[in-house]
Amino acid sequence: MAEHRSLPVPDGLEGERLDAALARLFGLSRTRAAEVIAAGDVLVDGQAGAKSDRMQAGSWLEVTLPAPPSAPKPRPEPVPGMTILYEDADIVVVNKPIGVAAHPTPGWTGPTVLEGLLGSGHTVATSGAAERQGIVHRLDANTTGAMVVAKSELAYSMLKRAFKERTVDKRYQALVQGHPDPLRGTIDAPIDRHPSGDGRFAVVAGGRPSVTHYDTIEAFRALSLLDIKLETGRTHQIRVHMSAVRHPCAGDLAYGADPTLAARLGLRRQWLHAVRLGFDHPADGHWVEFESPYPDDLVHALEVAAAES
């Protein structure tokens, strides 16, 4: 169902093109924003807008947004390479491989954790939207490591609350370019969608508060292996924050990594791994922790980095 929105142009969008302004305001891609404008569904002070029109703060926008595409329903199908780290009546902790999304989303045609669990005969909680049942947190499709899925309704509600209240210990390791200075620190910078509308995220004034703690485990000639603890869990948070301080994850070409270095390390995705996950078990409250070993591509990249140092 289409959604009608009316609002003034914020001061921060003064001088922006109309298509860029729509992309930032409503989380659309620039292409999708241009389509909405071309359809005559955007009025600026009562007049149909053109995508190249420059915005004036305080002008009145009237926008008819098309209904978002519905996410596909899960199709149970085993996922090769996805293993179970732990399972009981309430939770299942998976070791998520590369190229696997957490759950079905519009436009994603690859495998998902949810479909893999259902396809292997595991039960999951039915709370939440059908395409996200049991999912209480996510890892990027090309980020590997430990991920918990709720099997019982109690586990779903308690784990959702735990992630929201930041009582879950989420530990990652990342191989980043260069040597962060200081070797241990905190990146506290708000994150929102990238102004380009191309699906990336960025440090943006007025974005959602985002906090990343890092500590150097080992320094190589041109790279550093970091231990990372997240306080918040924004989309692409580690990748965005490390790129913002000019130390992108090795292999992360979308966020500014050196493609020559990535090729030398044999990386076809970001070197980022969810190495450990700890939380209060929803059944009885006792603390549990689960660890995930590095997959082969990350091990190989580390071996190359060590050999070159």
Automatic annotation (TrEMBL):
Active site positions: 140
Pfam families: PseudoU_synth_2
UniProt cross-references to InterPro entries, sorted A to Z: PsdUridine_synth_cat_dom_sf, PsdUridine_synth_RluA-like_CS, PsdUridine_synth_RluC/D, PsdUridine_synth_RsuA/RluA, RluA_PseudoU_synthase, S4_RNA-bd_sf
Class of enzymatic activity (EC top level): isomerase
GO molecular function, one term: RNA binding
Catalytic reactions of this protein: a uridine in RNA = a pseudouridine in RNA
Keyword Zinc-finger applies: no
Keyword Isomerase: yes
GO BP annotations, alphabetical order: enzyme-directed rRNA pseudouridine synthesis
Keywords: Isomerase, RNA-binding
Source taxon at top rank: Bacteria
EC number: 5.4.99.-
Domain Pseudouridine synthase RsuA/RluA-like: 90-244
Family: Belongs to the pseudouridine synthase RluA family.
Function noted in UniProt: Responsible for synthesis of pseudouridine from uracil.
NCBIfam families noted in UniProt: rluA_subfam
Name used for this protein in its record: Pseudouridine synthase
Native organism: Actinoallomurus iriomotensis
